[in-house]
Amino acid sequence: MSKRTHGSPETSAGAEVAAETPAAETRSVEAERLSQLRDKSLSDSTWATYLSAWQRWATWAIANDRPVLPADPHDLGAWANASVYPPTTDTAAAHDLEHTRDASTRGSTSVKSRRTTSSPARSSSTPRGIRASTLNTWMAAVAFVHRRAGHPSPLEDPALKSVLRGLRRDMVTTATPPRPAPALLTEHVERIVTAIDSSPTRGQSLLEVRDRALVLLAFTSAMRASKLAALNLDDLEPDTAGLIVRIRSSKTDQEGAGTFIAIPCARRAHLCPVRALDTWLDRLRQQLTVQDPDYTPHTGASPRTNTTGRYSLPARRGLVADLHGAVLRSLFHNGRVGNTTTPNPHQARMARLAITKTITARARTAGLQAPDTSGRYYSAHSTRAGFATQAADNGVAERDIMNHGRWKSVAVARSYIRRGELFDDSNAAGHLGL
Questions:
Q1: Which pLDDT tens digit goes with each residue over 155-204?
Q2: Nearest Cα to 325, choosing from 313, 311, 339, 336?
Q3: Which domains occur in the chain, in start order?
Q4: Which residue, 161, 224, 168, 214, is CA-closest to 189?
Q5: Which residue from 248, 272, 252, 269 is spatially nearest to 260, judged by alpha carbons?
Q6: Sign of the Cα pseudo-torsion (347, 350, 353, 357, in order)
Q7: Strand 242-247 and strand 259-264: pairing?
Q8: Alpha-helix runs per DSSP H in 149-292
Q9: What are the phi and psi torsion angles at 354 (to 5°)?
Q10: pTM of this structure
């Protein structure tokens, strides 16, 4: 019986297996990490948008007996057309046709049903009003899913490209123009604040203090609702001239390079966003002291230490240092404020939709009427639009408005700015001597 030597095939094979196993495990870990990084290539909002678009396509494809993945370019073109021009059926004609067929096939329910459902439907010549950008997003979502699944993008098909190009041209001439959110101007913001201060509690309830800070901060920062919801205490830097806010990422900054904006103190105390935010943080700290036994407040000087009624700079910095987490918190029916000890920590932060609903509700309470009864009402985007419109109306340079509002597209920024300049001295119709 011979002994196995170190150079025997069995020993060499075992060594190779032992050497390959760690390498395989390492590759598996690397693959998982790379998959996580690919997932992070899109923001949460983009993921949600793509998921919704893919579900739209999948629902239509299944209902029409078309392959979902990989998709046929012809089917995608048909879906795009059906999305812009959904088929409709003339109800009255179908009703008359059913009665006619029922008379000739009395007692034959199955025949009547089969014939009725097979009647041709007329296509509407009026689009449902979706924008070309929406169609582009839906198609981008389909292409993204195909690439992630290892399939070529169906959007590379020349025929489909022509169909989509034709749809976009058709939508320009027939689609209903989008209705932008009406702008909340300075006079509107002042009416909202006045309505809050005129309440039975004189604007001193925890909810009113928070909402005042929310409205003024949204207006002066020109931040989107999603960015207001994501704002944390460590993103704030109190300054003698006002407040410096760090925006970690945005719709136009997907890489998260971040930017800083400065919010100055206002001349009118009741409209000062800095003072309103300081008051909210002070009340937040007081509330946490009552409801959270583990919270230890700042032990320094009293917040109000100067004759103007403003918080001193050391006190403001102490407020920011004492608190952590979301700036804008949820308020519950029992009077408690959201904090890190909430059973669901995500409920401590105001959601984007909650911010929009709050601004809408405050505008209604202030008696503000929408400029167009058939259009959109005031929302969180109204403060952003109002900032650009009001600043342009007050003579602020276009470049400065874009920098503060973080607009990368000149066209988008000018869609707001030009509305504020329609009736200024540059309006030629105002110099006709009429």
A1: 999 999 999 998 888 777 665 556 677 889 999 999 999 999 999 999 99
A2: 339
A3: 44-85+127-174 (1.10.150.130), 186-355 (1.10.443)
A4: 214
A5: 248
A6: positive
A7: antiparallel
A8: 158-174, 186-197, 206-221, 225-230, 273-291
A9: -65, -35
A10: 0.65
